[in-house]
Amino acid sequence: MRNFDYQRAGDVAEATALHGNDHSADFIAGGTNLIDMVKLDIMRPQRLVDVNRLPLTDLESLDDGRLKIGALVTNTDLAYHERVLADYPVLSEALLSGASTQLRNVATTAGNVMQRTRCPYFRNPARPCNKREPGSGCGALEGINRNHAVLGTSEHCIAVHPSDMCVGMQALGATITVEGPGGTRDIPFEEYHLLPGDTPEREHDLNDGELITHVTLDAPIDGARGHYLKLRDRMSYEFALASCAAVVAMDGDAIREARIALGGVGTKPWRSHEAEAALSGQPATEETFEKAAEAAMAGAVAHRDNAFKIPLAKQAIVRALATVTAQG
Amino acid sequence: MMDDSVHSPDDALQPRDASRSSNTVTVSLTLNGEPVTLEVEPNVVLLDALRERLDLTGTKKGCDHGQCGACTVLIDGHSANSCLTLAVMHEGCEITTVEGLARDGQLHPVQEAFLEHDAYQCGYCTAGQMMSTVSMLNDKRIGSDDASVKEAMSGNICRCGAYKNILSAVQSARAKA
User: Fold this and answer.
1) Could you name the CATH architecture of A225-326?
2) Is B155 close to A35, i.e. CB distance below 8 A?
3) How many residue pairs bridge chain A and chain B with CB atoms within 8 Å of each other?
4) What is the ipTM of this complex?
């Protein structure tokens, strides 16, 4: 692995000052994704600013019902936090379906938000990849693309977003707070991850030198239940082929409000307002769920090997909805 | 599979900047209960620091990418892949490796259980399996049924396929704890 300089920051101001808007510097928290990529030689930081000592390890219930999560809260601690278990079970399930115990013990909330695609063309410096090297082409478009995205793709990139946690957050609604040279600002979770379009190298709405300090979940929907269903090639320690985060509040036999987000199929953690509109006010029947699934995947585009993901995602939506509406 | 990331063959292809190769950092940590001070370059992962600098070769290098679990150690009591964390990140931390499990010549109950249940064949994954077991048995948030154990241990691959006996050893160690 290439070498780099290393600096340890004690607080947020010091971390952003040390980073100093320097293109060749990166923040490091858990490091489970970053160190892997440095070993693969697909990220080449000249300098790492260690943010693990920053006081961002707390979870705080706000007066308005929201839950403010420090950037350094580990995936394990977030999954088992009493508020998450009680009010945001979809997030707990999503977190615990991701990675392995060892990785979840180290990986952080902000690091998970920042994690990069596992597209094998992105991860292999000998292959073309517009995300890694803009303008070099996309190896996946005509290559082996069984695991690639069917929603949000472009002619330049079809890499799938790997996170489970982010799919749960996408369904719940959240705000990402960042601090940087321009001060502090809030970014709606849904606007944070960017579609590849003509600039697949731009993955998020973060300016140089900005550091995520918190992710704040919206207040839970009154009376809502949640469930995360993940379909994959093996039962554990594997990325999703298709996953569905479903949050549903009922009003008698009808769906009052529903939130649907998908993993394993999108170039970003995918929120489906189309599916939500098809569910709102409708009876909780399989016919309704199937209409929602059709609406969610109406814009899907398959490539050579991944057409199976479209029916798979539809089935994930139907089953997640059946499970969540049958609870209680 | 076994190449050392500090001296990996592809390093030879890259120009070495002299100022970069000498930028060592001093790290003081607690290793198996003893204070240790290390001078390491920032790119030395904890796994290589343990094996190459401190001669603790019980922790194994398998995939070197967090996919196999052979390098599992405890960091402040929780299981972690030592291949995906930098040694310099652990100033003041408490690291436990498989060498730190036995006390006063007595094997740890988890080590006893692995022996008793023949929970290995080649043994390469065993240190990692045992460290994950110790961490899991101390973490009361993880369920105690077989399905929960299998899920919690899925980050430890055994290519020989000793999973059945590993599960028996884990549950036996739990009963004796």
Assistant:
1) 2-Layer Sandwich (3.30)
2) no
3) 103
4) 0.96
